[in-house]
Amino acid sequence: MTSDFHARIPDLMMASGPCSAYPRVLSAMGRQMMHHRTEDFVELMLSVDADLSRLFRTRNRVLPVEGESILGLEMAAYNLVEPGDVCINLASGYYGAGYARVLRGYGGEVVDVSVPYDTSVSIDQVRGALDRHPEAKVLAFVHSETPSASENPMGDICRECRDRGVLTIVDSVSGVGGSDVRFDDWGVDVCVTGTQKCLGSTPGMSLVALSDRAWERTRAVAVDAGRYERSYLSFLPWRRWVDEDYVPYTPPISSIYGLKAALDIIMDEGGVDASIARHEAAAKATRAGIRAMGLELWVDEDAHMANSVTAVTVPDGIDDRRLRGIMDDEYGLHISGGLGDEAGRLIRIGHMGYTASRQKVVTALGVLASALAELGRPVDVAAGLEAAAGA
Amino acid sequence: MTSDFHARIPDLMMASGPCSAYPRVLSAMGRQMMHHRTEDFVELMLSVDADLSRLFRTRNRVLPVEGESILGLEMAAYNLVEPGDVCINLASGYYGAGYARVLRGYGGEVVDVSVPYDTSVSIDQVRGALDRHPEAKVLAFVHSETPSASENPMGDICRECRDRGVLTIVDSVSGVGGSDVRFDDWGVDVCVTGTQKCLGSTPGMSLVALSDRAWERTRAVAVDAGRYERSYLSFLPWRRWVDEDYVPYTPPISSIYGLKAALDIIMDEGGVDASIARHEAAAKATRAGIRAMGLELWVDEDAHMANSVTAVTVPDGIDDRRLRGIMDDEYGLHISGGLGDEAGRLIRIGHMGYTASRQKVVTALGVLASALAELGRPVDVAAGLEAAAGA
Amino acid sequence: MTSDFHARIPDLMMASGPCSAYPRVLSAMGRQMMHHRTEDFVELMLSVDADLSRLFRTRNRVLPVEGESILGLEMAAYNLVEPGDVCINLASGYYGAGYARVLRGYGGEVVDVSVPYDTSVSIDQVRGALDRHPEAKVLAFVHSETPSASENPMGDICRECRDRGVLTIVDSVSGVGGSDVRFDDWGVDVCVTGTQKCLGSTPGMSLVALSDRAWERTRAVAVDAGRYERSYLSFLPWRRWVDEDYVPYTPPISSIYGLKAALDIIMDEGGVDASIARHEAAAKATRAGIRAMGLELWVDEDAHMANSVTAVTVPDGIDDRRLRGIMDDEYGLHISGGLGDEAGRLIRIGHMGYTASRQKVVTALGVLASALAELGRPVDVAAGLEAAAGA
Amino acid sequence: MTSDFHARIPDLMMASGPCSAYPRVLSAMGRQMMHHRTEDFVELMLSVDADLSRLFRTRNRVLPVEGESILGLEMAAYNLVEPGDVCINLASGYYGAGYARVLRGYGGEVVDVSVPYDTSVSIDQVRGALDRHPEAKVLAFVHSETPSASENPMGDICRECRDRGVLTIVDSVSGVGGSDVRFDDWGVDVCVTGTQKCLGSTPGMSLVALSDRAWERTRAVAVDAGRYERSYLSFLPWRRWVDEDYVPYTPPISSIYGLKAALDIIMDEGGVDASIARHEAAAKATRAGIRAMGLELWVDEDAHMANSVTAVTVPDGIDDRRLRGIMDDEYGLHISGGLGDEAGRLIRIGHMGYTASRQKVVTALGVLASALAELGRPVDVAAGLEAAAGA
């Protein structure tokens, strides 16, 4: 296999993430190297930081960590959780449920608040858990659960925790840029997003916003729990970035180029509000289209559905692998199936970043309908497209 | 205006040509320069030539001329037509009709054979004209008329002319690679195609196949009509390419890179037969979809329709500019309107090169349906997609 | 041979043109297609035009013709010369000498003014010729003769011709952007440049500036000589661009992207004066370096040397092919040899566009010295680099 | 600041890493996304793995970890070191010295073996330390110390440790691909390299080879020291890659594309031996050139010098920032200064990956000489280039 494998790259990828990236991002990824210890590069990093602060709506710096989002999420536990800390973990999907292991990995006493994966956690459930566990130090949850395409009410939960002095760790990997996130106003403590979801760049970075409380807690935990302060997992080396504009590692230069291009796209379209509105519109159109086509959405109600991905129940009698195989092989469109128990029961259509557009929604609905028809299960795509257009 | 105008580039272009190019072609266009007077570059050119010969199905070299296709077509007249030559010119569309001026420009006595622009010329009409004008030296026609999306029966016409000793000049700018062309078998004399149509590369080159008879005629006309033999319009400087592997000009290096990538794509998918089959399938799917949606195709019957573009009659009461405006602005899909008398009466959807795919056809049908619905003219897109899938 | 032939692309090309292009240009070449019949594209073309007017220092439009520079030069003769016109042709090199054939091709009665190819034409020689041929209609010459790396005094010649009412046709293919060109002030009539020389883009276009007199003459010649007005060679179709902002052909979209990036580079570095100063500095540094290394420049004196390329006499006993072979194979640096009678007697180092930089001059001198040393002919590269730095 | 900042990218970067990347790598970085959970992507990963195994000369899988090399190095301590383990740490430079903190961070009892930073550790010193500390579990060292451009005798050290049952952790971030590494033959246990050094790709990944012993030790330490087995720092999640071809994280897709292109370049040039030979030649040429120019190499003797970077003592009276400033601003060549105590005393020239070529060495020597001359400190560049060519 040589590196000229263009034929293997799908023409369009509307998966649960990554999706096809913006052409402008890809063009930026191909730029030659600058050196990271130059004024020009620091200026670029500061410009990225200014845009990221707008994106998270925070006055604080957002750490541009090199490594997959799961790294940023583990960093949150490494720095905020010490043995014996009671941590409320909201589980409304696989990623949320899995985070309990991370919290336990750092000594957290985890209180699980679980709901079925086709719905989201209510603020009342959160209040109940906080009432029952006034000793809780940390509450963690996933904002946008891509495995089930659901979304938790981030603002309500974080404000409640802030008012009670409980630190919040929010996995908004597929949320930031596509759903509303108001880091400072809502008093969020740690919020992690990725570059490859609603930003439309490529995978490879964790973007981590930290409140002042989170920084304080980081220092305390480092001492109390004896956390190695120079670890790649520690936030502390990043103080040099916050305080001295000195990036503590060799940054992933190409990924920074791509990220800057992605942020430029958002700023050019009118800023983060415009980006969120576009994602919301794509989500509503997709849902309306799916329903009008006579298919079922997996998540129980609209208020619980994510802006970046839509989960569709696989109709009875349809093999989801054959369905996705037709979409892939005959139509060059790659979407995702379900994870875990949902394998075979769900298909998931990503509309995030570059693919959060009316055109891509039409393509996805049209191809899905065509593939279903090929499998002997025609749907009313006319109603679907009409509903999508009017959503 | 700076050079970073990505936002102005349409997400998808299915116009009458150029259409969006293959990503692999665009990647090749960005390569650094080689020098054209090196063995490596000549090897590249020979490799392009070998692929082009497969594409036109000829044993002769196909001239890779730098300049728009109209240049290659003018070269045909410059080299083959001398004052007083009777030239039968088949006009089944704007391009065909316009070629009469070129023939006259070089002294040709043009006999026009015109048909309405929503049909194509029949072989009987050709025979009739040839019967009436046994003195004819040249017969010229457009294989695939993109302005009206029609196609003339190239094989029949060329074989008839060959049998009668009449030279043929064929504008197959949007035909080669998408419709069957058998240069040697059919005895074609000059056939011109472009890089930006069914090859899916970018505009900038004319690819010109010449028969041995055409080369002979070129030499004779140069002498008889005193044509300047070193002109950019003359085929004669290209003898150095044919005879000595020496390209007579500085070739457009980036365009050669792009063309080679486009040819690689065709060879990788199985060769020219596979490419034609793909274009034919896209055309059939588009037509079936348009009809099933209750819209009218402009061209009178399927046998007369082009493989690379489909013309749809604008429904009564619809302003085609508003329709295309919605497709552009809201859906990021750029298609073409009609030319000349057909302005406002036609829309044209290109399915050529990169866009000759099932996915792109679904996108085009879906977006067209959505835009029509927005204008209060809903169509049965379900039937359309079903018909497209089954075509 | 597949399209993945990166290994065959020289690491650095400092030939007589094309040279290695700017990375920013190559990045622009890889952009997806826009449609040329859109407002956005016309805006791009107008922006290119505004920059080109700055480059040529003219208020008139500069025609962005698709095809190698030789096409633009032939257009000049096609449109300005009619049978019987006396044309003074200055021949100070192969390109200049060759243009006599073009002028004759269109009926010109050519008066040749020749000088040895290692010098340039003096203004006195021009005056003498004009005195001897007061009937001359046209005077043609090459501004920068890349085959011998010499330069003619364009301003003096054109002003003299303007004052005498003689039309000038100037081949400044490797001049514009690297040497001073003042189209309007000097009263030039036709000036042609290429995209692949001092602009640092890729080959494929002819950029043609026309005076009002040239436009008038074009109209007259079209009538008098019966030139086909719709020919690809005619300037007349371009009136639609000049008068209506309508590009008369499908433009080479990628090449326009690349050209715009090249023009942006010039405007970003401070405009055409800065670009010329950089080329002049690179030329002076190269000459100083070559001389200090004990080698001989081919052209007789500095005032006659080109800014875009330097010709060096091959030292006795050195086989230029072996020399260039070592530079190519061992050092990844491609330069040019001599043409015609100069084959084997010259090597030519291009310093134009991207390669007109102090770094590239150091690289060229250093590699040349190393290759000569390998052939047993050491030179004083220390003196060479010192002289280059101080030039 | 927009994303179009090409002007800020240095024309050539020969720093201590990253250096300018291969154009072929940059082209690959700009490819569109594939999904990582597809057969095609797994095939790509397996192909990368096969090449990496050739590169490290091991039968084991080399983990393609997402994150800077420092992450891979910390992983080694996380997985192999438990509290109380005696770890011999060889410090022949800043990176080596700094690793003691990492070992201590995971409870290691560190025995430092230090040598001045302008030399390397001898095998006798290693034997002595091993003799004095027969209880040692681990020995760690840096193969190629980029801060001082020195190299430790990796083969000797690792074989000695293997024979004594001491695990080795080798930082070969700037070694692998440029210097000989025989992972299996020498019995290395953990060896980490980066993508942005001798491979000539971009920064962003850690490539980690593990012996069977290292895997065993990882399992034991996880249990004994209670290391969190699902941590991003743990090797254990990577068992799914080793055992099941399942990448445990979302891989950095663009970086994988770039890495594959870099590996293709190595395989195309003849494999890892050819790559090492090229780096060795570049290093020898640079050293010979520097010495012949009358400058001093920082490292005490050739056998201790690195193949990927050369440290030059800043001559008396020269301000290294002014020197590098001239190289940057006037010649577009970016090199590195010294770190820590060596700031102002050293300049470092990287010749790794794309810049490990004869042309780039000539450029670096020539530009350095020119900049020194500008500062009033001329050097004998003629002797330098001659020596470089003959090295």
Could you give a short description of this structure?
The structure is a homotetramer of 391-residue chains. By secondary structure, chain A is an alpha/beta fold.
Spell out the blueprint of helices and strands.
The structure is a homotetramer of 391-residue chains.
Chain A lengths: L11 E2 L9 H7 L9 H18 L5 E5 L2 H12 L5 E6 L2 H12 L3 E6 L8 H10 L5 E5 L1 E2 L4 E2 L2 H11 L2 E5 L18 E5 L10 E6 L1 H13 L14 H6 L8 H16 L3 H21 L16 E5 L6 H12 L1 E2 L1 E2 L8 E5 L7 H17 L6 H10 L1
Parallel strand pairs in A: 1-12, 3-4, 3-5, 5-8, 8-9
Antiparallel strand pairs in A: 2-10, 6-7, 9-10, 11-14, 13-14
Mean residue pLDDT of chain A? 96
Number of strands of chain A: 14
CATH fold-level topology of the largest domain in chain A: Aspartate Aminotransferase, domain 2
Question: Low-confidence runs of chain A (pLDDT<50, min 5 residues)?
Answer: none
Main sheet properties of chain A: 7 strands, mixed
How would you characterize this protein structure?
Four copies of one chain form a homotetramer. Chain A folds into two domains: 10-18 and 271-390, Aspartate Aminotransferase, domain 1, CATH 3.90.1150; 23-267, Type I PLP-dependent aspartate aminotransferase-like (Major domain) (Aspartate Aminotransferase, domain 2, 3-Layer(aba) Sandwich), CATH 3.40.640. In chain A, 42% of the residues lie in helices and 15% in strands. Chain A contains 13 helices and 14 strands. The first copy, chain A, has helices spanning 23-29, 39-56, 69-80, 94-105, 123-132, 154-164, 212-224, 239-244, 253-268, 272-292, 320-331, 358-374, 381-390, and strands at residues 12-13, 62-66, 86-91, 109-114, 138-142, 144-145, 150-151, 167-171, 190-194, 205-210, 309-313, 333-334, 336-337, 346-350. In chain A, β6 (144-145) and β7 (150-151) form a beta hairpin. The mean pLDDT of chain A is 96. Chains in contact: A-B, A-C, A-D, B-C, B-D, C-D. At the A-D interface, α1, α2, α3, α4 and α9 of A face α1, α2, α3, α4 and α9 of D. Chains A, B, C, D: This is Alanine--glyoxylate aminotransferase. Chains A, B, C, D: Its cofactor is pyridoxal 5'-phosphate. Chains A, B, C, D: One of its GO terms (biological process) is glycine biosynthetic process, by transamination of glyoxylate. Chains A, B, C, D: Belongs to the class-V pyridoxal-phosphate-dependent aminotransferase family.
